Every structure is written in structure tokens, then in C-alpha cells.
Amino acid sequence: MKLLLVEDDPMLAETICDGIRQHAWVIDHVRDASAAQLALVEHSYAVVLLDLGLPGDSGLTVLKKMRERYDSTPVLILTARGQLSDRIRGLDAGADDYLVKPFPFDELLARVRAVIRRAQGRVVPAMSRGDVVLDPAKRLVTRAGARVSLSSHEYRTLLTLMERPGHVVTREQLENVVYGSASSIESNTIAVFIHQLRRKLGDDIITTVHGQGYMIGESRS
């Protein structure tokens, strides 16, 4: 199991990372919002431990961008902000739980285990198009029953299209979902992912709607 810690306090981060590793878990540590967003689009995590008071953008911004990308990774907020209004904002933004600093390490472990159990208990229906099936709960894609290996970017591109069957998704929308931003991305990046998905899943899986974007299924307009 792999966790991501987003925390700018070096002493606290070291304590948490050491404790997590002693329990035979793997943990990555980043110190600011931009590094967190990059890690989240490049890797998959079982849980994100997220500080709110980060340099630059806040932890809430990181959380909101995750949920905008349909990233349902459980998030446990770690913060010194104990006011009710802060807790409400974090939960409303999509956090799964909230832990106010300072906290006993055993309580942190218990809450991590709890959010993982809740996430594993969620029923997320699989989506299909022809013989291609995408199971969001398992992050698994199969074609004619055989598993298909996709990169994280290819997976998010396919998931975004399959969640909107019959609707055109623009290149800019896909860039925002896959990368969290459409800035500083080469203009043909999404086209490359679409080409790779067609190569792996069949040429007819995704339709190009010229001048608009991409679509899976028949138009509902």
C-alpha cells in the first residue's frame, strides 16, 4: 500500500514517514501544492495525507482539483486549523476524514485504515463499450476479458470519456482532467493518448468529432 503525504513541516513529515514505513507501508512526501498535484497525476495512492496550510496554493485547492479530475483517492486532512468552519470546508471539498494537529500517531494509523475500509466498501459500477470494460473500483480495463495495461494518463482519458457516453468531451476538458490544467501541455498530447487507446482497445472505441473533441458511443444531442 502506498500513501502520499503533503506536509511542509519537515519534522512532522519525518515523524509520519518513519512511522508509516515501520508498518511496512510505502509513503511519498511532497512539501507544496504544485508538487502534490504532479505526484497525483503521475502515481496512484491508497490514501492522501493532506495538510491545509501549504506554501503557495492551499491543501483545499489540491483537494478540489483532485475531485474535479474524478480522482476518488481517499483524503485525510491533517491540519492545525481546528475551527468548525475549516473542517466543514475540507469535508465539503471532498475530504474523507479530518485530523487536527497535534495527534497521536496511533490515531493517524487508525483513521488511515478506516478511510481505506470505507473506500473498499464503495460500490462503483463498471462501465462498458462493446467488449471493453472499465472497472473504476479496481482501476482495471479489460478487452474481451483480457486485461489491458494502460498508463495513468491513458486510464484517466478513457475514464473521462466513458463517464460521458454519447457526449463530446473537448481537448481542453480532457487536459484539465488528466493534468489538472491545460497550460504548458503540448497541443497534440491528448491526441497521442487517444491514438494509444485506439491501438490497445480498437479503432472504433473513440470517435473524433472534428472541431469539437472526442466521444464514446452515439451522440445524445
SSE succession: EHEHEHEHEHEEEEHHHEE
Named at the architecture level, the CATH assignment of the largest domain is: 3-Layer(aba) Sandwich
**Tally of individual helices:** 8
Mean pLDDT over all positions: 86
**CATH T-level fold name of the largest domain:** Rossmann fold
Any idea what the shape is?
elongated
Which homologous superfamily in CATH is the superfamily of the largest domain? Response regulator
- What's the number of structural domains? 2
**Main CATH class of the largest domain:** Alpha Beta
Q: Which class best fits the helix and strand makeup?
A: alpha/beta
Low-confidence stretches: none
Helix content: 40-55%
**First-to-last CA distance:** 43 Å
Radius of gyration over all CA atoms, rounded = 19 Å
Strand content: 15-25%
What's the topology here?
Elements: E1 2-6, H1 10-22, E2 26-30, H2 33-42, E3 47-51, H3 59-68, E4 75-79, H4 84-92, E5 97-100, H5 105-121, E6 127-129, E7 132-135, E8 140-143, E9 146-147, H6 152-162, H7 171-179, H8 189-201, E10 207-209, E11 213-215
Parallel strand pairs: 1-2, 1-3, 3-4, 4-5
Antiparallel strand pairs: 6-7, 7-8, 8-9, 10-11
Characterization of this structure:
This protein is of the alpha/beta class. The chain has two domains: 2-121, Rossmann fold (3-Layer(aba) Sandwich); 127-215, Winged helix-like DNA-binding domain superfamily/Winged helix DNA-binding domain (Arc Repressor Mutant, subunit A), CATH 1.10.10.10. The protein is built from eight helices and eleven strands. It has helices at residues 10-22, 33-42, 59-68, 84-92, 105-121, 152-162, 171-179, 189-201; strands at residues 2-6, 26-30, 47-51, 75-79, 97-100, 127-129, 132-135, 140-143, 146-147, 207-209, 213-215. The protein has a five-stranded parallel beta sheet with strand order 2-1-3-4-5, sandwiched between helices. It has a four-stranded antiparallel beta sheet with strand order 6-7-8-9, with helices on one face. Strands 10-11 form a two-stranded antiparallel sheet. α1 (10-22) links the parallel β1 (2-6) and β2. α2 (33-42) runs parallel beside α3 (59-68), α6 crosses α7 and α6 (152-162) packs across α8 (189-201). The longest helix has 17 residues, at 105-121.
